[in-house]
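Box S2. Input/output pair 1.
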Amino acid sequence: VAAELRKVGDPDRVERLVLTGSAGLWEAQSNGQLPKATRAFIREQAERVFHDARHVDDAMIEKLYESLKDRVYVRTLLRLARDTQAYTLENQLGELAVPTLLLWGENDRITPPDIARTFHAAIPGSQLVLIPECGHAPPLEQPARFTAELRRFMCGGE
C-alpha cells in the first residue's frame, strides 16, 4: 500500500489526484461475511449510499441482486472489504506531493465528511469540497456539481 501511495504522490507519474468518498482511513467493521443477499437487504444498503433514496430503483436492485449471485464477484467484494479494514493510510498521506481535491457528499453515510476532513488535514495543500444534498455517490447523485468541480480542478483552478 505504501509503495502504491508513493507512486500516486510522485509528480512525475500523477499530475493531480481526486478522491471522493475514499477508503483508507476508517471503514465500518464487519465479520468478513455478507448477509443473505435478499432484494430487501440490497435496497436497504443501496439507499444508504444516496442522500435521496429516489436514486434507487427496481432496476438497480435487480442488477445488484444478479451481481451477488456471482461467487467470484462476492469473493472480490469480501477481499476488498477485508483489505480496506486491514490498512490505514493516515501516516502516509503527508507524502502526497500533487494537487489533491477531496470531492465529498455532505451527507455521505458510508465515509462521512469527518473522514474527508481528516484526509484534508493530512494531505498538504489539498482542497475539500462538500457537495450539499449528496451522499456517497456524488457522480450519480449530483452529476452537474460533481462535473463542474472536477473540471475546475483538473483545468488548474485552485
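Box S3. Input/output pair 2.
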Amino acid sequence: MLKFEQYLEQFTNTINLVDFFLAFLLTALLATLIRWFYIRYGEAVSNRKRFANNFLPLALVTMLIITIVKSSLALSLGLVGALSIVRFRAAIKDPEELTYLFIVIGIGLAGGANQPILAIVAFVLIVFLLYL
C-alpha cells in the first residue's frame, strides 16, 4: 500500500490537474475546429465526415499519453515497446487524410506537453496555409 501512496503523491506533484483540464479542453476545441475545417474544405474522395470523427479521440488520447509519459523515462520506454507491437492498420487512401491525422496528433502532442500557445499559433498558421 505504501508504493501506491508514493505513486499518488508523485502523480499529484508532477501533474497539475487544473493545467491538465485546461489542456484537455484546448485540445478538444482545436481538434473539433480541425474536424470542421476538414469537412468543409477537405478534398478527399472518401467520406470526410466519417473520417473526421476520429480527430477528437485521436487528439485527446495523444494528449493523455504525452501527459503521462513526459514525467517518467521508464513509462516512455515501456510505451515504445508497446507501440512496436501495435501497428496502425487504417487504410489511408489519400495523402490529405494522413496530413490531417498528423495535424491532430501534433495538437495532441502540444496539449500533452503543456504548450497551449504553441498549439494555438501552429493551428492558426496551418489552417491559414491550408485555406490558401
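Caption for Box S3: The mean pLDDT is 81. The radius of gyration is 17 Å.
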